């Protein structure tokens, strides 16, 4: 007796072969390097020490084997480095080896390693497990001072003045640089290094959390007071400091008759023999006494 081939079974076999070859073709796709929120063809601009976020998205279907960053004499393979500081410079906590995607942030590197005005170039190379290689260059210009702008506020207005600040605490020691604002902090989560900023003994500051855009938009003490008047006051501000997590946070502090507006541009936390070193840097605005 002659058995006819089962057409249904044959179709399933063909579909299975198709699926296998289809997946193989998809897996051989080259890695992609994509600029997020800007064009990599155009130079990015910012201030030395206060550069904005520059995010680069890496996608590799066949998983990342090498992720090499070059800038002047600096070169690192983020997929194999064991130095956590290298990872911190690009907004990472772990090596992205074997990852299918990862987002880099060049902000920490620029703010910590570029100190003079000029044009700079980042060369990014990604190789996957199938040895597909993709490269991209990102260009940036660092300025010492922002370009001058035409004044838009009356001459008799009480303009806010901008200065820089650095707060640092080693282990359980004092918070250097905090007395100006009448503040102190406590570590409330050693794993993620969360800190609670509150008053120091003998002061009675009030805090209010604002939007990041408020720091640039508020230009006079009157504008600041009016903005803060409509916000809920709090006795403390909690921040996550590791891996630059606090960058972009903005809050106000009223200490006695002084009014301050703080914007954090970078934050870090590293273990040491003397205890965890927590550093918070940024700019603050002040314009005189609060009436």
Distance between the termini: 105 Å
Number of distinct beta strands: 16
Percentage beta strand:
35-45%
Q: What characteristic shape results from the CA principal axes? A: globular
Low-confidence stretches: 17-27
Count of folded domains: 2
Question: How big is the Rg?
Answer: 26 Å
Widest beta sheet: strand line-up: 2-8-7-4-5
Kindly state the percentage of residues in helix: 10-25%
Q: How many strands, what sense, and barrel or not for the largest sheet?
A: 5 strands, mixed
Put simply, the count of helices is 5
Residue-averaged pLDDT, rounded? 83
How do the SSEs run, as a string of H and E?
HEEEEEHEHEEEEEEHHEEEE
Structure description:
The protein is 16% helix and 40% strand. With 291 residues, the chain is of the alpha+beta class. The protein has 2 domains: 31-143, Immunoglobulin-like, CATH 2.60.40; 161-289, no CATH class. The strands form 4 sheets. A 5-stranded mixed β-sheet has the order 2-8-7-4-5, with no helix packed on it. Strand 14 and strand 15 form a beta hairpin. It is globular, with a radius of gyration of 26 Å.
Secondary structure blueprint with pairings:
Elements: H1 7-27, E1 32-36, E2 44-47, E3 55-59, E4 64-71, E5 74-77, H2 84-89, E6 101-105, H3 107-113, E7 118-128, E8 133-143, E9 161-170, E10 183-189, E11 194-199, E12 206-210, H4 214-217, H5 221-229, E13 237-240, E14 250-255, E15 258-270, E16 277-289
Characteristics of this structure?
291 residues; alpha+beta; Immunoglobulin-like
